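Anyone able to model this chain together with iron/sulfur cluster?
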Amino acid sequence: MRKLGIYVQVPFCQTKCTYCNFHTGVVASSRFAPYVEAVCREIREHRDLLRAAGVGEDLAEKAHSQEWRCHEAVLDTVYIGGGTPSLLDPAHLQNILDAIRETFAGSLEEVTLEADPETVEAEKAAAWVRAGINRVSFGLQSFADKELIAAGLFTGD
Ligand code: SF4
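re: yes, here you go
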């Protein structure tokens, strides 16, 4: 049986690194919720897109059964990357994972969140675990001040 993995990009960062060409930016946190709503809507509408393409006639009904396969595959991994998705409220991450669980067959064996160490707090980490996140990928640019200054992440003060 083929396995399916989903990557969700969260294009927000605390600071824009000088060398980064990813589609990310620094925005007001008030823009996080509308983005998450749009992502959830797109995930749920994926069912309709598949149906429109003639894949899985009774997709919605079978989404949680072993009968249904998205292109003959079942979902087993989700990677929420960025950007810096750990900036989001844990409830946002929960909403994204709920939408994925409702839409795709399979069980989420591995759910990864990309995190900036500066954004991690015990309370948030506990909420991530409750949402089903079982792997954290930490990203840090450098331990060297000189390199952090070159990347625009540290002023040296
Ligand atoms: S934190 Fe990562 S994604 Fe964000 S600007 Fe820096 S390198 Fe790019």
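The chain has a mean pLDDT of 86.
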